[in-house]
Amino acid sequence: MSTIAENISTLSEQIQAAAHAVQRDPASVGLLAVSKTKPANDLREAYAAGLHDFGENYLQEALSKQLELADLPLIWHFIGPIQSNKTRAIAENFAWVHSVDRLKIAQRLSEQRPAELPPLNICIQVNVSGEDSKSGCTPQDLPALVDAICALPNLRLRGLMAIPEPTDNHDEQNAAFATVRTLQDSLKLPLDTLSMGMSHDLEAAIAQGATWVRIGTALFGARDYGQH
Ligand SMILES: *Cc1c(COP(=O)(O)O)cnc(C)c1O
Description:
40% helix; globular; TIM Barrel
Protein backbone atom coordinates (compact mmCIF):
# COMPACT_ATOMS: atom_id res chain seq x y z
CA MET A 1 0.00 0.00 0.00
CA SER A 2 1.20 3.52 -0.72
CA THR A 3 1.70 5.96 2.14
CA ILE A 4 -1.33 7.92 0.99
CA ALA A 5 -3.51 4.80 0.91
CA GLU A 6 -2.24 3.86 4.38
CA ASN A 7 -3.01 7.33 5.67
CA ILE A 8 -6.52 7.13 4.26
CA SER A 9 -7.11 3.82 5.97
CA THR A 10 -5.83 5.23 9.30
CA LEU A 11 -8.03 8.31 8.88
CA SER A 12 -11.09 6.19 8.07
CA GLU A 13 -10.55 4.26 11.31
CA GLN A 14 -10.14 7.52 13.22
CA ILE A 15 -13.34 8.92 11.72
CA GLN A 16 -15.25 5.71 12.50
CA ALA A 17 -14.06 5.65 16.10
CA ALA A 18 -14.87 9.34 16.62
CA ALA A 19 -18.34 8.89 15.12
CA HIS A 20 -19.13 5.76 17.12
CA ALA A 21 -18.01 7.49 20.32
CA VAL A 22 -20.93 9.93 19.94
CA GLN A 23 -23.43 7.48 18.35
CA ARG A 24 -23.11 9.00 14.90
CA ASP A 25 -23.16 7.09 11.63
CA PRO A 26 -19.56 7.25 10.29
CA ALA A 27 -21.04 7.56 6.78
CA SER A 28 -22.38 11.00 7.78
CA VAL A 29 -18.80 12.31 8.02
CA GLY A 30 -17.15 13.04 4.68
CA LEU A 31 -13.39 13.08 4.24
CA LEU A 32 -12.41 16.09 2.15
CA ALA A 33 -8.85 15.66 0.90
CA VAL A 34 -7.08 19.03 1.17
CA SER A 35 -4.55 18.84 -1.62
CA LYS A 36 -3.08 22.37 -1.75
CA THR A 37 0.63 22.38 -2.72
CA LYS A 38 0.45 18.64 -3.57
CA PRO A 39 1.12 17.30 -7.08
CA ALA A 40 -1.65 15.82 -9.24
CA ASN A 41 -0.22 12.33 -8.78
CA ASP A 42 -0.91 12.47 -5.05
CA LEU A 43 -4.55 13.20 -5.80
CA ARG A 44 -4.59 10.31 -8.27
CA GLU A 45 -3.36 8.00 -5.51
CA ALA A 46 -5.99 9.29 -3.09
CA TYR A 47 -8.66 8.73 -5.73
CA ALA A 48 -7.42 5.18 -6.33
CA ALA A 49 -7.74 4.63 -2.56
CA GLY A 50 -11.39 5.71 -2.65
CA LEU A 51 -11.55 9.51 -2.24
CA HIS A 52 -13.55 11.69 -4.64
CA ASP A 53 -13.71 15.10 -2.97
CA PHE A 54 -10.71 17.42 -3.08
CA GLY A 55 -10.25 20.82 -1.45
CA GLU A 56 -7.97 23.47 -2.92
CA ASN A 57 -7.00 26.95 -1.67
CA TYR A 58 -5.13 28.49 -4.59
CA LEU A 59 -7.06 29.02 -7.80
CA GLN A 60 -4.32 28.75 -10.43
CA GLU A 61 -2.85 25.68 -8.81
CA ALA A 62 -6.30 24.08 -8.59
CA LEU A 63 -7.12 24.79 -12.26
CA SER A 64 -3.93 23.21 -13.49
CA LYS A 65 -4.55 20.08 -11.39
CA GLN A 66 -8.12 19.92 -12.71
CA LEU A 67 -6.70 19.81 -16.25
CA GLU A 68 -4.19 17.11 -15.36
CA LEU A 69 -6.90 15.04 -13.68
CA ALA A 70 -9.72 15.64 -16.16
CA ASP A 71 -9.94 11.87 -16.79
CA LEU A 72 -11.17 11.30 -13.19
CA PRO A 73 -14.68 12.09 -11.87
CA LEU A 74 -13.42 14.29 -9.01
CA ILE A 75 -15.54 16.73 -7.02
CA TRP A 76 -13.73 20.01 -6.43
CA HIS A 77 -14.17 22.20 -3.36
CA PHE A 78 -12.73 25.70 -3.06
CA ILE A 79 -11.71 26.31 0.57
CA GLY A 80 -9.36 29.32 0.48
CA PRO A 81 -9.84 33.09 0.81
CA ILE A 82 -11.63 34.52 -2.25
CA GLN A 83 -10.77 37.73 -4.06
CA SER A 84 -13.43 39.28 -6.30
CA ASN A 85 -11.41 38.78 -9.46
CA LYS A 86 -11.34 34.99 -8.84
CA THR A 87 -15.07 34.40 -8.52
CA ARG A 88 -15.77 33.65 -12.19
CA ALA A 89 -13.23 30.84 -12.43
CA ILE A 90 -14.41 29.46 -9.10
CA ALA A 91 -18.06 29.56 -10.17
CA GLU A 92 -17.16 27.76 -13.40
CA ASN A 93 -14.85 25.07 -12.07
CA PHE A 94 -15.93 23.98 -8.59
CA ALA A 95 -18.92 22.12 -7.11
CA TRP A 96 -18.53 23.57 -3.61
CA VAL A 97 -17.19 26.74 -2.01
CA HIS A 98 -16.57 26.52 1.76
CA SER A 99 -15.12 29.96 2.32
CA VAL A 100 -17.84 32.50 1.49
CA ASP A 101 -17.78 35.21 4.14
CA ARG A 102 -19.32 38.28 2.49
CA LEU A 103 -22.27 39.10 0.28
CA LYS A 104 -20.35 40.66 -2.60
CA ILE A 105 -18.53 37.37 -3.21
CA ALA A 106 -21.75 35.36 -2.97
CA GLN A 107 -23.52 37.66 -5.44
CA ARG A 108 -20.70 37.34 -7.96
CA LEU A 109 -20.58 33.55 -7.59
CA SER A 110 -24.32 33.33 -8.21
CA GLU A 111 -24.22 35.67 -11.23
CA GLN A 112 -21.23 33.87 -12.73
CA ARG A 113 -22.37 30.29 -12.14
CA PRO A 114 -22.92 28.80 -15.62
CA ALA A 115 -26.60 28.06 -16.30
CA GLU A 116 -25.90 24.50 -17.41
CA LEU A 117 -24.35 23.56 -14.06
CA PRO A 118 -26.30 22.74 -10.89
CA PRO A 119 -26.33 25.42 -8.18
CA LEU A 120 -22.99 25.96 -6.46
CA ASN A 121 -22.93 24.41 -2.97
CA ILE A 122 -22.01 27.04 -0.41
CA CYS A 123 -20.78 27.05 3.15
CA ILE A 124 -20.49 30.34 4.98
CA GLN A 125 -17.21 30.64 6.83
CA VAL A 126 -17.77 31.95 10.37
CA ASN A 127 -15.15 33.37 12.65
CA VAL A 128 -15.68 31.80 16.07
CA SER A 129 -12.29 32.70 17.52
CA GLY A 130 -12.78 36.45 17.36
CA GLU A 131 -9.34 37.13 15.94
CA ASP A 132 -9.20 40.17 13.69
CA SER A 133 -6.70 38.55 11.34
CA LYS A 134 -8.84 35.54 10.43
CA SER A 135 -11.34 35.46 7.61
CA GLY A 136 -14.94 34.61 8.31
CA CYS A 137 -18.22 36.34 8.92
CA THR A 138 -18.86 37.40 12.53
CA PRO A 139 -21.66 35.58 14.37
CA GLN A 140 -23.48 38.95 14.54
CA ASP A 141 -23.43 39.38 10.76
CA LEU A 142 -24.34 35.77 10.01
CA PRO A 143 -28.19 35.91 9.96
CA ALA A 144 -28.31 38.75 7.41
CA LEU A 145 -25.72 37.07 5.20
CA VAL A 146 -27.65 33.78 5.36
CA ASP A 147 -30.89 35.49 4.32
CA ALA A 148 -29.21 37.26 1.42
CA ILE A 149 -27.47 34.11 0.18
CA CYS A 150 -30.69 32.07 0.37
CA ALA A 151 -32.21 34.58 -2.08
CA LEU A 152 -29.48 34.06 -4.71
CA PRO A 153 -30.71 31.77 -7.50
CA ASN A 154 -27.56 29.88 -8.46
CA LEU A 155 -26.26 29.11 -5.00
CA ARG A 156 -27.40 26.39 -2.61
CA LEU A 157 -26.56 27.19 0.99
CA ARG A 158 -25.53 23.93 2.69
CA GLY A 159 -24.18 25.11 6.04
CA LEU A 160 -21.29 26.65 7.92
CA MET A 161 -17.53 26.27 7.81
CA ALA A 162 -15.04 27.28 10.50
CA ILE A 163 -11.31 27.21 11.22
CA PRO A 164 -11.03 27.76 14.98
CA GLU A 165 -7.78 29.01 16.43
CA PRO A 166 -5.46 25.95 16.64
CA THR A 167 -5.15 24.43 20.10
CA ASP A 168 -4.20 21.01 21.47
CA ASN A 169 -6.67 21.43 24.33
CA HIS A 170 -9.64 19.14 23.65
CA ASP A 171 -12.06 21.15 25.76
CA GLU A 172 -11.23 24.30 23.80
CA GLN A 173 -11.53 22.41 20.50
CA ASN A 174 -14.94 21.07 21.53
CA ALA A 175 -16.13 24.48 22.73
CA ALA A 176 -15.22 26.17 19.43
CA PHE A 177 -16.92 23.52 17.31
CA ALA A 178 -19.96 23.52 19.59
CA THR A 179 -20.24 27.27 18.99
CA VAL A 180 -20.38 26.66 15.23
CA ARG A 181 -23.03 24.01 15.66
CA THR A 182 -25.12 26.23 17.96
CA LEU A 183 -24.91 29.05 15.42
CA GLN A 184 -26.07 26.70 12.69
CA ASP A 185 -28.97 25.45 14.83
CA SER A 186 -29.99 29.02 15.65
CA LEU A 187 -30.61 29.69 11.95
CA LYS A 188 -33.53 27.22 11.99
CA LEU A 189 -32.99 26.23 8.37
CA PRO A 190 -32.72 22.73 6.90
CA LEU A 191 -28.93 22.94 6.49
CA ASP A 192 -27.10 19.62 6.20
CA THR A 193 -23.43 20.56 6.28
CA LEU A 194 -20.87 21.50 8.93
CA SER A 195 -17.40 21.83 7.42
CA MET A 196 -15.05 21.75 10.39
CA GLY A 197 -12.09 19.79 11.69
CA MET A 198 -8.59 19.46 10.24
CA SER A 199 -5.74 17.01 10.88
CA HIS A 200 -5.19 18.04 14.52
CA ASP A 201 -8.79 18.41 15.70
CA LEU A 202 -11.00 16.11 13.64
CA GLU A 203 -12.20 14.04 16.62
CA ALA A 204 -13.60 17.08 18.44
CA ALA A 205 -15.18 18.33 15.21
CA ILE A 206 -16.90 14.98 14.63
CA ALA A 207 -18.09 14.94 18.25
CA GLN A 208 -19.74 18.31 17.59
CA GLY A 209 -21.41 17.33 14.33
CA ALA A 210 -18.93 17.87 11.47
CA THR A 211 -20.11 16.46 8.14
CA TRP A 212 -16.93 17.37 6.24
CA VAL A 213 -13.54 17.08 7.89
CA ARG A 214 -10.94 18.85 5.75
CA ILE A 215 -7.71 16.87 6.02
CA GLY A 216 -4.38 17.77 4.43
CA THR A 217 -1.30 16.93 6.49
CA ALA A 218 -2.54 13.64 7.95
CA LEU A 219 -3.37 12.45 4.45
CA PHE A 220 -0.66 13.80 2.15
CA GLY A 221 2.11 14.63 4.65
CA ALA A 222 3.60 18.02 5.57
CA ARG A 223 3.31 20.80 2.99
CA ASP A 224 6.16 22.71 1.37
CA TYR A 225 4.99 26.29 0.75
CA GLY A 226 8.12 27.19 -1.20
CA GLN A 227 6.22 27.90 -4.40
CA HIS A 228 3.62 30.18 -2.77
C1 LIG B 1 -4.88 23.70 4.67
C2 LIG B 1 -6.30 23.64 5.11
C3 LIG B 1 -6.82 22.50 5.72
C4 LIG B 1 -6.03 21.24 6.04
O1 LIG B 1 -5.22 21.42 7.15
P1 LIG B 1 -4.35 20.21 7.76
O2 LIG B 1 -3.99 20.72 9.12
O3 LIG B 1 -3.17 20.06 6.87
O4 LIG B 1 -5.19 19.01 7.80
C5 LIG B 1 -8.18 22.50 6.04
N1 LIG B 1 -8.95 23.57 5.80
C6 LIG B 1 -8.48 24.69 5.22
C7 LIG B 1 -9.39 25.83 4.97
C8 LIG B 1 -7.13 24.76 4.87
O5 LIG B 1 -6.67 25.89 4.32
